[in-house]
Amino acid sequence: MRGAIYRQLWFQVLIATIAGIALGHWAPGLGVPLKPLGDAFIALIRMMIAPVIFCTVVHGIASANDMKSVGRLAIRSLIYFEIITILALIIGLIAVNLWQPGVGMNVDLSSLDAKSVETYVATAHEQSITGYLLAIIPTTFLSAFTEGQVLQVLLISCLFGMAVATMGEKGRPIVDMVDKLSAAFFRIIHFLMYLSPVGAFGAIAFTVGKFGSGSLVSLGELIIMFLLLCLVFTIVVLGGVARLVNVSLWRLLIYMRDEIVIVAATTSTETVLPRIIEKMRAAGCDEKVVGFVVPAGYSFNLDGTCLYLTVVAVFLAQATNTPLDLWHQLVLLAVLLLTSKGAAGVAGAAFVVLAATLGTTGTIPVASIAMILGIHRILAEGLTFVNLIGNCLAAVVLATWEGAIDREKLATTIGNAKARQLAGD
């Protein structure tokens, strides 16, 4: 324990979350206007993401002696991301076909409020694979930081880090300066974390006050099925990966408890991205690996989002009695392999990707997503949790694969019995 429990961040956020739920339920008129508290906290953390990624990646790459290792890390990361996300898509597809939560609902599309999702549909129409790839390239060097696009910042950081690394001794002062800036930016993150209970209180009070509990009854089976699926995927799949790299899943959950509670309240993994980078470095993962893998994972390693997309898409087909044979589901899976990479770690992004996917396949009516608009934030509790744990594990997997992990730190933080034994040897 790190002192009295009331001083620990996870406990403070948990109490604030419970208070927000109570206020949103019993006094929704007071809860809904508190949305700016959650938005402000997310905005404060978001403004720090770009400088934290830049400093971490630049310092990690510039300190490396072998530039080939950077390219090797990128290739290995993409291979791992694809394997895990494909597995998540397949598991989600199998689970929703076995459970069939939408069968028997017989929803009439004319009864749905299509206007409520017009904004999401319009945004989805603007999505394309070519556009997504081109969007990784910023308009200018500085615009990568002002627009807040994680992949743009990652691209600029990699290029700058490689440039500094090839400068030899002339680049050493730049590396030292970046290291000092990194320490300052992480100190700011620590300051901002004191506001996380306030942000959690506002975010959850708005969610409960806005959507209430009525939608939970009519769509309760989908919620239960999806949250159970997220739990099973975490224990079986991510737990299996954890064992392969000598990590205790239980110790990892305890180690990341502050971040888990914050993500649960804000339904956005972006609020803890800088903290993940800091904590995975403290767990023994090399700075270069963490600096690349964690930001890249926010677009390419969204396991929970993949579960969400397959489950909800097939659920909507079941609920609206839309025929969806094996061929249509394989096409859906193929499309999701591409569209799922466009979902960032921001609250609501998965909803836009879902609309884009349905629009691309043309099989399931896009207007049907209005059915889950009221429970999306509830489903996001499961998907953001899986995304968070998945990206933490990805850092350990790639660090182990690269031989860039401190066994002693791993053993004292999240390592299992075998890791502790190896550290002792």
Automatic annotation (TrEMBL):
Gene Ontology biological-process entries: L-aspartate transmembrane transport
PROSITE patterns, A to Z: NA_DICARBOXYL_SYMP_1 (PS00713), NA_DICARBOXYL_SYMP_2 (PS00714)
InterPro entries xref list: Na-dicarboxylate_symporter (IPR001991), Na-dicarboxylate_symporter_CS (IPR018107), Na:dicarbo_symporter_sf (IPR036458)
Name recorded for this polypeptide: C4-dicarboxylate transporter DctA
Segments crossing the lipid bilayer: 9-28, 40-61, 73-99, 150-168, 188-211, 223-245, 300-320, 326-344, 351-376, 382-401
Family designation: Belongs to the dicarboxylate/amino acid:cation symporter (DAACS) (TC 2.A.23) family.
Subcellular location: Cell inner membrane
UniProt topology in membrane: Multi-pass membrane protein
GO molecular-function terms, A-Z: fumarate transmembrane transporter activity; malate:proton symporter activity; succinate transmembrane transporter activity
Keywords from the UniProt entry: Cell membrane, Membrane, Symport, Transmembrane, Transmembrane helix, Transport
GO CC terms of this entry: plasma membrane
